[in-house]
Amino acid sequence: MSSGTARSPVVPALRSARAVVFDTDGVLTDSARVHAAAWKEAFDAWLAALPRDTTATARTATGTTTGATDDSAGTGAAARRPFDAAEDYRRYVDGRSRPDGAAAFLAARGLPADRAAVEAVAADKERRFTERLRARPVAAYPGSVRLLRALRGAGVPMAAASASRHAREVLAGAGLLDLFDVLVDGVEAARLGLPGKPDPALFLEAARRLGVPPGRCALVEDALAGVEAGRRGGFGPVVGVDRAAGAGGAGTGAGTPTARALRRHGADLVVADLAELLAGREGEPA
Q: Where residue 168 sits, what CATH number does that domain have?
């Protein structure tokens, strides 16, 4: 990673990259928490309204019949237990488009995941998220802002890539939009017909617009589907973000369940905060 200074602003793991592609929710801004809360409200309302005799075999929006993948799915009330805003969000909806996330969760519970069901839950989630976003803009993580400004000061090309149709609004509200050379959001993904994560199409489009081969682009993601997309797309390095590990020194999240899952799905390294990717005064991790 070249810069106009004698010392790179980032840790050695990123210095081979000529550009950086960032996911947005949970990586740059605290919007993942808002998404998770909106998903919980939408799913819980849907689950509570289901008839008690609902079948435990899911038919997805694509028309294929799928057995339950959740161990407790198909056991009556257990299949309709409330959505877990931490674990269910991470496993089924984080990083995915709204229809894909809704279908994945409903199918995992062994519940009807036909097109009508998926569209109803996805629309309800969109309404709830929009209400929350309008009520209070989402804040940027301070460590993320520090890294973005350091990279911008060093002349490193950067792209923001997100499955969310609200990414532009969220980044603008957090004061980050002008720091990026490229934005590929859910609106653009839909216009181009790009498949969702873990397919790497969204990130490959961002790299293409930056004019840098994926192998020379670092990718920063917090979602399992996202780091898997980075691996499939040949990005390097792929940095996983484990916010649940809390702030601390480099590698803080290395031993947490989320960090281990991120590594299994394709992360080359895992950090708890993006400030850990900044070099210290002596060229060592901060």
A: 3.40.50.1000
Catalytic residue among 25, 88, 242, 273: 25
Closest of 24, 15, 16 to residue 186, by C-alpha? 24
Note down the domain range covering 176.
Answer: 12-30+139-277
23 is catalytic: yes
Beta strand residue intervals within 114-180, DSSP E: 158-161
Q: Say if residue 150 is in the same domain as residue 259.
A: yes
- Which residue in this structure is represented by tokens 């969109």? 126
Q: What is the pLDDT of residues 95-140, one digit of tens each?
A: 888 899 999 999 999 998 899 999 999 999 999 999 988 888 889 9
Q: Please identify which of the residues 23, 94, 100, 273 carries the catalytic annotation.
A: 23
Are 14 and 158 within 8 A, CB to CB? no
- The reply to whether 70 belongs to the active site is no
Helix (H) or strand (E) holding 225: helix 224-232
In degrees and rounded to multiples of 5, residue 276 shows phi and psi of -65, -15
Residue 227, H or E segment: helix 224-232
Report DSSP state, residue 98: H
> What pLDDT is recorded for position 134?
85
For the entire predicted model, the pTM comes to 0.77
Read off the pLDDT of residues 230-270 as tens digits, 9 standing for 90 and up. Answer: 999 999 999 999 988 764 444 444 578 999 999 999 999 99
